Amino acid sequence: MKIEYRCSRCGYTIEATSWLWQCPKCGGPLDLVIEGLKFTLSEYRGLWRFSSVIPAKPLVSLGEGFTPLVKADFLGKGSYLKLEYLNPTGSFKDRGSAVAISKALEFGAKAVVEDSSGNAGISVAAYAATASIKARIYVPKDAPEGKKTLIRSLGAELIETSSRTEASRVAIKSVGPNEVYIGHAWNPWFLQGTKTLAYELLNQIGHVPNAVILPVSAGTLLLGLWIGFNELLGFGLINKVPRLYAVQTQGFADLYGRIHGEYSKEPTKFADALRVSNPPRLGQMVNAVTGSGGDALVIEDDELLQAWKTLLKRGYIVEPSSAIALSGYMKLLSNNYIGSDDEVVIILTGSGLKYIDIMSKV
Question: Could you report the per-residue pLDDT of 313-323, keeping only the tens digit for each?
Answer without folding.
Answer: 999 999 999 99
